[in-house]
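Entry:
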Amino acid sequence: MKIRGISTHFVYTGPHRNWTLVKIDTDEGIHGWGEATVEGKEKTVAEAIHELERQLIGRDPFEIEKLWQEMYRDAFWVGGPILTSAMKRFPYQSTTMTGMMTPARNFQWDK
């Protein structure tokens, strides 16, 4: 499975509390949703997400740790609230997709 596209969507809930939603699509038709909001900077976060998209297209969405480290550490300016907000839901979206593909019997449970 490979990441095919990333799109951003806005939900306007008020003047200071709007949400930036992120959708990751795969070549197998599975997608994951997440939220990546910095209040008052919704469009700035969306642009950061689209910048990160270049690194993610064609990649395996289940290489969560590897992709997250590349997005964070390979940037010229490491960190900051905009970049980390743009990245923060990627692991959640990928694990959501994993759950949609993996039967419950395949999960490992701690005793």
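Residues 56 and 70 are 10 Å apart (CA to CA).
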